[in-house]
Amino acid sequence: QFPGDAGYTNAPYVALPSGIISGKSDVTFDFWFRITQNKDWARILDAGVSSKDTDPRNSGSATTQSLVYSPKPAGSGPGRFEIKLPAGNAFLAGTTTLPVGVEHHVTLVYSPNQNIIKMYVNGVLENSMTPVAGATLNTLAESHVWLGVSGNNDATLNGGINELRIYEGAF
Of 12, 17, 52, 167, whose CB count within 10 A is highest? Predict the structure, then answer.
């Protein structure tokens, strides 16, 4: 549970081991979560490099390398999966604005080997695109993998992540 009323300087978060993403050739993220308050740029997942180093409570900003899922990137829009790698960036937007107080199931697939990026929301394929050529996960500089907080000084997650699975391979 992430109360979300905290600022980034005192927000609870979960840190996963560095290398858990960049060590894979293709990856699938499978999340079950609930949002209590839909805040701009609050993160379910934020991985990469930030001037915050390994402490999300520091002030700072993300660099040009990251892998992020935000259920509400800005305004009233749907969720967004961002991949920023040295070879180029990909921004995949969903089509459904996620309501608060309801359990959601989001699956994100990043597969340069199969030449596809996909976002499923509640079992429905919402969007897909082709990754940038050469944008492989082993090029991701990964000093942090955080749940509930951001590599930037963005809003913190107000809600809960009930289940997270990270798979090697594309589903």
Answer: 52
What pLDDT score was predicted for residue 8? 85
Q: At 139, list the tokens.
A: 């090029």
Instruction: Give the C-alpha separation, 17 to 10, whole Å.
Output: 21
DSSP one-letter string for 69-115 = EES--STT---EEEEEETTEEEEEE-S-PPPTTSEEEEEEEEETTTT
Q: How confident is the model at residue 103 (pLDDT cuts 50, 70, 90)?
A: very high
Residues 48-56, mean pLDDT to the nearest whole number: 89
Strand positions, DSSP E, the chain: 2-3, 14-15, 27-37, 45-50, 62-70, 80-85, 88-93, 103-111, 116-121, 124-129, 144-147, 158-168
Output the CA angle 132-157-87, nearest 5 degrees.
Answer: 15
Distance CA 126, CA 66 (A): 22
Share of the chain above pLDDT 70, in %: 99
Question: Global pTM?
Answer: 0.94
